[in-house]
Each structure stands twice: as C-alpha cells, then as structure tokens.
Amino acid sequence: MKKRAQQGFTLIELMIVVAIIGILAAVALPAYQDYTKRARVSEGLTLASAAKTGVTEYYTSNNKLPTSNSDVGLPEANKIVGTAVKSVGVGANGVITVTFNDKVATDATLTLTPDVTTSTGSIAWKCRAGASSGTNALPQSVLPAECRGT
User: What is the mean pLDDT of residues 23-51?
Assistant: First the structure.
C-alpha cells in the first residue's frame, strides 16, 4: 500500500491558530486603546502650551497670576479645541484646565498649576488629572509621564 502525503492542515491545527490569534488580539486591543487615549491627552498639553506661555508672560509683566483667558490674550476657553479637547481655560491663580470630550473621557480634565519660585521669578508647572470623578476621571495609564504621581 502506498502512503499519500499529507495535503493541507487538519482542523485541530487551524483551530489552534485561530485561538492564538484571538489571544493576541485580546491582549493587543486594550494596549492600543490606552496608546490612542494617551496621544489624545498629549494633544491637550500641546494646546495648553500657548496658555502656559501667556501665563508666564502675564506674571512677568504684572507680578501676579492671571485669572482668565482674556488676561493672557487667548480666545474664550471653548474656542480652543482639538480632536479630543473640548476647551482650554485659564482660571484663578493662573491654573490652566484642559477639558476633554468623549474621545478620552467626557468632561475629564487635566490641570496645569503654576508654581512661582519667588527667588528667581520663574514658573514651574505641576500637571495632574483634574477633579473629575467616576467614569470621567483620567486614568493614570493615559496621563503623560510628567503628570503621573504629582
């Protein structure tokens, strides 16, 4: 009797390949979602850079911190928008608040607080997730490195 050479894959081999692809997808999707949210949060920091410059210049000129976007020459907070950013506003004591839309977490915020060094007159910025709570809070995994743990 002649033996025939095997042609193709068996059903069990195909099922194993499908299972492996499923496991890889289950691991990769959450990591990719965090990556995209982190990129969108970084967009907020980029949009806030003009406000940081404005707060610094205002402090240098007036020796006090601004309290609004108009103080630093910026448009209204809801006019500074991006793909994932709903608004960028300057508030009391020069605190910059970046509010995100549903592409990150609806109404979640990131705050940049100026810390004035009186001896040098320079401003250091403290970045942290805002006061949002529950499902709207920014998770630590999507915060930029400079905003974690401060």
Answer: 87
CB 93 within 8 A of CB 121: no
User: What letter does residue 118 receive in the DSSP assignment?
Assistant: T
One-letter amino acid for residue 52 of the chain = K
Task: Say which range, 4-18, 84-98, 126-140, has the weakest mean pLDDT.
Answer: 126-140
Q: Where are the beta strands (DSSP E) in 8-143?
A: 85-90, 96-100, 109-117, 122-129
Cα 16 to the chain's mean position, in Å? 38
| Gap between the Cα atoms of 119 and 70, Å rounded | 28
Q: pLDDT tens for residues 77-98?
A: 899 998 889 999 999 899 999 9
pLDDT score for 132: 53
Instruction: Give whole-number Cα distances, 27 to 84, 103, 144, in Å.
Output: 25, 21, 22
Measured at the alpha carbon of residue 80, what is the angle toward residues 77 and 82, in degrees to the nearest 5? 135
pTM of the shown model: 0.76
Q: Which region holds residue 107: left if phi is over 0, alpha if psi is between -120 and 50, else beta?
A: left
Could you please report the per-residue DSSP string of 33-71?
HHHHHHHHHHHHHHHHHHHHHHHHHHHHHHSS---STGG
